[in-house]
TrEMBL record:
The keyword Glycoprotein applies. This is Protein obstructor-E. InterPro entries: Chitin-bd_dom, Chitin-bd_dom_sf, Chitin_bind-dev_reg. Residues 46-105, 116-176, 185-253 form the Chitin-binding type-2 domain. The lineage of its organism: Eukaryota, Metazoa, Ecdysozoa, Arthropoda, Crustacea. One of its GO terms (molecular function) is chitin binding. It comes from Hyalella azteca (Amphipod).
Length: 284
């Protein structure tokens, strides 16, 4: 006859041995130790610590918590936009973004500080103020915002605090905001762009309206990147490459007032097309 021996496994399930094999006993579980999480209040509305030392939830506010020392409770609030995370109760800063914290019944929050039009709270990720712009959101740190554009085809999901597919984001009436260059002066025009030979260009380039020596490259046709020609050259929008100024009518004489090119312009033929490989183009 087989003998059974009970083994107690701390904070785990109870197992027993049959013929030398450990077998799970589904009818017996080790008792779970319940740790108090929330502060309570006595009849005089005085905060009562669950234990003399610790950090505990507020029963109502998700962005509030209580620090207990020697049995005395002190209420504290997270920075505007952050909420208390019980899993970080032992950390110097026990607060985190609400996108990773489950508040449960603690649904109240302190009043927002509205540091600027893009940040309703000092910390967090927020939708663009224009509800039609779904592919752009703002990351706010201490009231300073950073604009972020979702990857192509994705929309910002305020519940998750990140970009996701439109069906998951459930945004309506969306009109994608074009990505702007770092100088804020240019956005890539939509559609297919062809080179001088009629071939589609995956990363088309466009002139800078104010400076013939500069241009913009649209990465994948969408993201503008500022670029410059080598000294002595200008951008030719027809060929989408840099060329000598005299070969680009709208930029002819662009370096005429540059002392480094005075000799070049003094000796250049009227047509400007002889000797395209002049050694002084680089300003030497």
């Amino acid at each position: 006859m087989a003998h059974s021996v009970w083994l107690l496994v701390p904070l785990a399930t109870i197992l027993f041995a049959v013929n030398g094999q450990l077998v799970f006993n589904p009818d017996r579980q080790a008792p779970e130790e319940k740790v108090p999480l929330q502060i309570t209040f006595d009849q005089t509305n005085k905060a009562v610590c669950p234990e003399s030392e610790g950090v505990y939830e507020d029963a109502t506010f998700c962005d509030a918590y209580w620090v207990c020392k020697n049995g005395a409770a002190t209420e504290k609030f997270c920075e505007d936009g952050l909420v208390f995370d019980p899993k970080k109760a032992g950390h110097a800063d026990p607060c985190d973004t609400p996108h990773v914290v489950h508040c449960g019944t603690r649904q109240e929050l302190q009043e927002p500080t509205f540091p600027n039009e893009f940040c309703p709270r000092k910390y967090g990720t927020f939708e663009h103020p224009d509800p039609k712009v779904c592919n752009v959101y703002y990351q706010c740190v201490n009231g300073v915002h950073t604009e972020v554009t979702c990857a192509t085809g994705l929309y910002f999901n305020s519940t998750q605090g990140s970009c996701n597919w439109p069906a998951i984001s459930q945004r309506t009436g969306c009109v994608d905001k074009p990505k702007m260059s770092s100088d804020g002066a240019f956005s890539c025009p939509g559609g297919t762009h062809l080179d001088a030979n009629g071939i589609a260009v995956p990363h088309p380039s466009f002139p800078n309206a104010d400076d013939c020596s500069k241009f913009y490259v649209c990465l994948n046709g969408e993201t503008p990147q500022e670029a410059s020609c080598d000294k002595g050259l200008v951008f030719d929008e027809r060929s989408m490459i840099c060329a000598l100024p005299e070969t680009v009518p709208e930029c002819e004489g662009w370096y005429a007032n540059d002392p480094a090119f005075a000799h070049y312009y003094d000796s250049a033929p009227a047509t400007g097309r002889a000797d395209p490989g002049r050694q002084d183009v680089a300003g030497g």
